[in-house]
Automatic annotation (TrEMBL):
GO annotation, biological process: DNA integration
Protein name: Transposase
Biased composition regions of type Basic and acidic residues, renumbered to the chain: 733-744
Sequence segments annotated as region (Disordered): 64-90, 656-685, 720-744
InterPro entries referenced in this protein's UniProt entry, alphabetically: Integrase_cat-core, RNaseH-like_sf, RNaseH_sf, Transposase-like_Mu_C
Coiled-coil segments on the chain, per record: none
Length: 744
């Protein structure tokens, strides 16, 4: 196939006249890639231009002898069409043989219309008179070519010939290809484009709702079509089978596939991915909360699910701190009332996590000696020299974060956590919403904790119902404080001293992976170790703050009253804080609610107040126990201001939890719900309504004083009144003396 360019670039030599930037120039010299131009205009200026820039300049063309140079005031001659590249033939490689034959066919005819000679013409051949550009117009050649093709049994019109030529001038050889042969299948098939947009809109509304099936999405689309298109909805709405195929083309999944996609990284960011990098301990710390996939026993003896909040250092993969908290739903007495008895990880737990990061983990007497920092891979002597608190500590280093990466949960996005980080000089960077890959290291660490720690303890539930056992809640479960103790020992022994696959020497990749403690020791040897000491006041400032008024009765906080002699100077007085009036900042500890601390910034002192009914409780308790007692008190019709009754309930809950479950009481079986009655209707009791006789009140029958056989005798002698002796009577009551005589 002969491939010809639509127009050959002009040949420019020394002495050629060119038109450039509205003026006419004479080419006086060609030196390398530069062209020296001499202006024809008397007031014009000469120029030296790069040859490539001259060819690419709009309006540039080489003038032949027939062209008349135009001055600045004369009309500018029309510029020739920009030269098209000779390429385009490689685009035909993927076409079928029939399509390539059509391109060859039209290329010869288009060239003959445009230049007067077909593509297969020998150089020097004169064009036919009907196609001679010097004798005929372009319109005449269109009509002649169309008539010639129709005579050769190719039914084409003049407009088709014109369209082919213009496409060839614009796109080259590719413009002669029938685009119907290269058109791919439509992504949405034959469904109307408006309906496709409506499908996307309806699906987007359902993204944050519970997952449904395709049939629900089809019904929602039908309703949306009726609302938007009115009478045309029946014509535009596809059939159910077509709609299901459309969902496959659009990549919209429902049902089980959508449920599986929610947890498989569907919210991951677009590639390329950048791994979290840190060159020093504390440079980047990731913090998050997850379910521990375990059941435990809380302070009141209830079986609850557990949550884990942890922080990990990116550079050394050290778990800086970890906190276990129960998760249970409470009860509400009204739509706008506070929920009582519920519990989950709160912002104060994140504050405790910060304090744990800055404090060495002390060894406990029952822990293994292998969990101690002394004798481990940590530089124990250097750490004790810099911080005496490390003496006798566990094998978990203390790293002060420089930057914390957190998610957008309310546990970390609250004001208390931000203020605590600002107080410690820690910068906070939130991760992108719905992008767990932005803190992938802590997410992967959670998976390791569950596989290396959780699944070996009783009460392990697995990640979902398909992995959960049938009688998990009936196992001998550990208390939450015991599970937390196991976790702290496991971190020091099973995590910090275990080789991590990501801790390798980049310069010596053949070396085995290092442990987090070994990596921390390497960084300490190169960058040193500076401890951070938190004073008692610093720890108080890490607690959450409540702005309350100090009255004659003391401080009222969370349905509890606190009072002491230290509050005498603050009762009904202004605090001095801007815009707070008589409200003072009070720090409270949710896990130690028997005390609160009032901060006086004027004298830089702290006033401590005790719970007024602490003597009724006696033992250590938490706000979670108080909420459960409050919920039980409200169920009985009580009020939240009855603090004495709630305090006694707290005491009873703690005592009952200390005794454990009863071994003698037999639990009552729950009534069986049998549903509606089926079968024939029962017969009505004929004795219904008749009272049941009291058999113990029925009197016995009297004893007869004569022989029962005498009741059947034929006659009974009875004494008649007025007679001295009795007269026998007959059976009908007449006497024998009055009986008639027998006939003689």
């Amino acid at each position: 196939m002969a491939v010809h360019a639509p127009a050959r670039p002009e040949v420019m030599t020394v002495g050629s006249a060119v038109h450039w930037r509205g003026e006419t120039y004479l080419v006086t010299a060609l030196q390398g890639s530069s062209v020296h131009l001499l202006s024809h205009h008397p007031d014009g200026e000469d120029a030296v231009v790069l040859l490539d820039a001259l060819h690419r300049c709009p309006g540039f063309r080489v003038l032949d002898g027939s062209d008349t140079p135009a001055g600045d005031d004369g009309p500018v001659p029309p510029s020739a069409p920009a030269p098209r590249p000779l390429g385009g033939a490689d685009l035909l490689d993927g076409l079928s043989e029939k399509a390539r034959q059509e391109v060859d066919f039209w290329l010869d005819h288009v060239l003959e219309v445009h230049t007067g000679l077909p593509g297969f013409a020998v150089p020097g051949t004169a064009p036919r008179p009907c196609y001679d550009p010097g004798r005929t117009t372009l319109r005449d050649r269109y009509e002649t070519k169309a008539a010639e093709l129709r005579a050769a049994h190719h039914p084409v019109s003049v407009a088709t010939v014109e369209r082919k030529r213009l496409a060839w001038l614009e796109q080259g050889v590719w413009g002669l290809v029938d685009k119907r042969r290269v058109r791919g299948p439509s992504r949405h098939g034959r469904v109307d484009e408006q309906v496709v947009k409506l499908v996307h809109k309806v699906h987007k509304r359902q993204e944050k709702k519970s997952i449904g099936t395709r049939s629900r999405l089809f019904e929602l689309l039908r309703r949306a079509c009726v609302r938007k298109f009115k009478k045309k909805a029946q014509q535009l709405l596809p059939s159910r089978a077509t709609f299901y195929r459309l969902l496959d083309r659009l990549g919209i999944v429902c049902g089980k596939q959508a449920a599986a996609r929610r947890g498989d990284g569907s919210h991951r960011p677009e590639p390329p991915f950048t791994l979290a990098m840190a060159t020093a301990p504390g440079e980047q710390v990731q913090i998050d909360t997850t379910s521990l996939d375990m059941l435990g026993v809380d302070e009141t003896g209830r079986v609850v699910s557990l949550e884990l909040t942890a922080a990990i250092d990116v550079a050394s993969r050290t778990i800086l701190a970890a906190v276990i908290r129960p998760k249970s739903s409470g009860t509400k007495t009204g739509a706008t009332s506070r929920r009582h008895g519920g519990r989950a990880t709160k912002a104060v737990d994140a504050l405790f996590l910060l304090s744990e990061m800055c404090t060495p983990q002390p060894m406990r007497p029952h822990w293994s000696l292998k969990a101690a920092a002394k004798g481990s891979d940590l530089p124990y002597a250097q750490l004790v020299e810099a911080d005496e608190r490390m003496e006798g500590a566990a094998a978990r280093p203390v790293i002060i974060p420089e930057m914390i990466i957190m998610d957008n949960g309310k546990v970390f996005a609250g004001r208390a956590f931000m203020d605590a980080c600002a107080q410690l000089g820690i910068s906070v960077r939130p991760a992108c919403a719905y992008s767990p890959t932005h803190k992938a290291i802590i997410e992967r660490t959670f998976g390791s904790v569950k596989s290396l720690f959780s699944q070996f303890l009783p009460g392990y539930t697995g990640k979902d119902l398909t992995h959960r056992g049938k009688h998990v809640a009936k196992e001998r479960l550990w208390r939450i404080d015991q599970i937390n103790d196991f976790l702290q020992q496991w971190i020091a022994l099973g995590w910090q001293q275990r080789p991590h696959s990501e801790l390798r020497n980049p310069f010596l990749p053949s070396m085995p992976p290092r442990t987090p403690n070994q990596m921390f020791a390497a960084h300490v040897a190169s960058s040193g170790y500076v401890p951070l000491r938190l004073s008692a006041e610093d720890r108080l400032r890490l607690l959450p703050t409540a702005w309350v008024q100090v009255t004659d009765k003391g401080i009222r906080l969370n349905n509890r009253t606190y009072d002491s002699r230290a509050l005498n100077g603050y009762r009904n007085t202004r605090s001095g804080w801007p815009g707070k009036g008589q409200r003072w900042p009070v720090r409270y500890h949710p896990h130690q609610p028997e005390k609160v601390w009032l901060e006086d910034r004027r004298s830089n002192k702290w006033a401590e107040a005790d719970f007024v009914y602490q003597r009724l409780i006696g033992d250590a308790w938490s706000e979670h126990v108080w909420d459960q007692a409050t919920a039980a008190h409200l169920d009985k019709g009580g009020h939240t201001r009855d603090e004495t009754a709630i305090a006694r309930l707290v005491r009873s809950l703690l005592e009952r939890a200390g005794r454990g479950p009863s071994r003698t009481a037999t639990p009552q079986p729950a009534p069986v719900e049998r549903g509606m009655h089926v079968g024939p209707a029962p017969m009505q009791d004929p004795y219904r309504g008749i009272p049941t006789p009291a058999f113990h009140n029925v009197a016995s029958l009297p004893v007869m004083d004569i022989d029962p056989r005498q009741l059947c005798a034929p006659a009974v002698r009875l004494a008649l009144p007025g007679s001295s002796s009795g007269t026998p009577l007959t059976g009908d009551g007449r006497s024998h003396d009055s009986a008639p005589a027998e006939p003689s």
